[in-house]
Write a structure and sequence with these properties.
Layout (H helix, E strand, L loop, with lengths): L7 E5 L2 H4 L22 H6 L21 H15 L3 E5 L2 H4 L10 H16 L3 E7 L5 H7 L6 H16 L6 E5 L9 H5 L9 H26 L4 E7 L3 E3 L4 H23 L4 H10 L7 H9 L4 E5 L4 E3 L8 E2 L6 E2 L5 E2 L5 E2 L1 H15 L3 E5 L17 H19 L5 E7 L19 E3 L11 E3 L1 H11 L7
Parallel strand pairs: 1-2, 1-14, 2-3, 3-4, 4-5, 5-7, 6-8, 7-13, 13-14
Antiparallel strand pairs: 9-10, 11-12, 15-16
The protein binds 6-O-phosphono-beta-D-galactopyranose.
The site of 6-O-phosphono-beta-D-galactopyranose has 15 residues, from loops.
Length: 475
């Protein structure tokens, strides 16, 4: 049997995309609250358009999201019904430290997640906690400049110490930063980072990344000190780049593009900056604030496992300007003529998933954890409330099958699989509700109107059977 009995089947969400309750329970404001739905979204995510407070005339979907703040018991019961072994969720930093720089945490925020974890335990569900899924209290951006400031490591250490201490015995699996490589592409969304016009972009991005990498290693250290049972993972927005042609220049271009992403995981998993990154920073004129202590903490506190998201493979070429581009998980890619794409243009490539798992496992030789994968699609609710999402089942079946091959044929070690958006939630890239990933439908539209009612889709029973059969029955 390829999937071990203790394989962690489940689903994943992120606080800013499902929780809502942005002003409840003493929570502070975060970067992720301030990203509107609509035409300006992408500019705000990248930091091109600065938005540090709510502005009139915009719809901010994270304010309410799917209101899991009020529905979490009902939602976790549904996850339990599907037989989830794990549920990946994230902490809203500003619920625990509303401004980010307080000395004492917000007890109401701590209680909120404690209740969630206890609810999970009632159903035998092991929480898998992302410490920051793109969140940053906006106060930290305003006052300290966010991750361009070394002080952020102190605030992050305080956050994680609180989490590891208060949730000891309730949570064992932790991820330090969701899709840590996203900071290079969407710095405001991914890390609350704004780059001033007179600043050197590369310098700011690499410096902020360095502080996050140090913070991640510090968190790993603290996690192990507080509870040796804790397991800490890094998290990469993965998906291998293929060369468009066998032209060696395309092949090398794809290699370099892959390295840009591996850079983060190389540091988190191997404990040191890879030489290609050191040379690249040198060429770019980047001079890092990098202390002897940083070097030590990175070296001595590498991650226990490698987690990643995978939606599609990507394509690279030196002559990218003349090629048709397609969208994907933030990263644009050249169109792959061999692949079909989702309604949102994300290319579908199950074998690319197996390939990505192989590359990661060969490179790091540590267990993998697939913490995001899935199909964003429009769903239709029929008159009898049925939702026949065969397209989603088809996508998931092929990807789970590829994962099975990676385990069974290639010998890749995988701890678990949490498909993305197990309950419909707000899309990160577009802010839409209509881009749905769930086994559970949520009755809300792109403007946040609707009853918030939860409805099981056809995929609900399908996934239940996948879990019950340990991945044997994918029909
Ligand atoms: C990843 C993020 C998630 C998630 C997912 C799907 O980048 O970690 O937060 O949303 O992609 O993307 P989207 O919501 O844009 O379809």
């Amino acid at each position: 049997m390829p999937f071990p009995k203790n394989f962690l089947w489940g689903g994943a969400t992120a606080a800013n995309q499902c929780e809502g309750g942005y002003d409840q329970g003493g929570r502070g404001l975060a970067n992720v609250d301030l990203i509107p739905h609509g035409l300006l979204r992408s500019d705000v995510m990248s930091g091109k358009r600065v938005m540090l407070d709510f502005e009139d005339g915009f719809n901010y979907p994270a304010k309410k999201a799917i209101n899991m703040y009020d529905h979490f018991k009902e939602d976790i019961a549904l996850f339990g019904e599907m037989g989830f072994k794990t549920y990946r969720l994230s902490i809203a930093w500003s619920r625990i430290y509303p401004n980010g720089d307080e000395l004492e945490p917000n007890e109401e925020g701590i209680k909120f997640y404690e209740n969630i974890f206890k609810e999970c335990k009632m159903y035998g569900i092991e929480p898998l906690v992302t410490i920051t899924h793109f969140d940053c209290p906006v106060h930290l951006t305003k006052v300290y400049g966010g991750w361009k400031n070394r002080e952020m490591i102190t605030f992050y250490k305080r956050l994680v110490t609180t989490l590891f201490t208060r949730y000891k015995g309730l949570v064992k699996y932790w991820l330090t930063f969701n899709e840590i490589n996203m900071i290079m592409h969407m710095p405001f969304m991914a890390a609350g980072l704004l780059i001033d016009e007179d600043e050197d972009r590369n310098q700011v991005l690499y410096q902020a990344s360095h502080y996050q990498l140090v913070a991640s290693a510090e968190a790993t250290k603290i996690a192990h000190e507080i509870d040796p049972e804790n397991l800490v993972g890094c998290m990469l927005a993965a998906g291998q780049f293929y060369p468009l042609t066998s032209n060696p220049e395309d092949v090398f271009e794809a290699h370099c593009k892959n390295r840009d992403n591996f850079f983060f995981i190389d540091v988190q998993s191997r404990g040191a900056y890879p030489s290609y990154a050191i040379y690249e920073m040198d060429r770019l004129g980047v001079k890092l604030d990098f202390t002897k202590e940083d070097e030590e903490v990175l070296k001595n506190n590498t991650v226990d496992f490698i987690s990643f998201s995978y939606y599609s493979s990507r394509v690279a070429s030196i002559d990218s300007s003349n090629q048709t581009k397609v969208s994907g998980n933030i990263f644009k890619s050249i169109k792959n003529p061999y692949l079909k794409a989702s309604e949102w243009g994300w290319q579908i490539d199950p074998l690319g998933f197996r390939y990505t798992m192989n590359v990661l496992y060969e490179r790091y030789q540590k267990p993998l954890f697939v913490v995001e994968n899935g199909l964003g699609a429009n769903d239709i609710v029929n008159e009898d409330d049925s939702i026949i999402d065969d397209y989603r089942i088809d996508y998931l079946r092929k990807h789970i099958s590829a994962m099975k091959d990676a385990i069974e044929i290639d010998g890749v070690s995988i701890l678990g699989y949490t498909s993305w958006g197990c309950i419909d939630l707000v899309s990160a890239s577009t802010g839409e509700m209509s881009k749905r990933y769930g086994y559970i439908y949520v009755d809300l539209d792109n403007q946040g109107n609707g009853s918030e009612k939860r409805i099981k889709k056809k995929s609900f029973d399908w996934y239940k059977q996948v879990i019950a059969s340990s991945g044997e029955n994918l029909d």
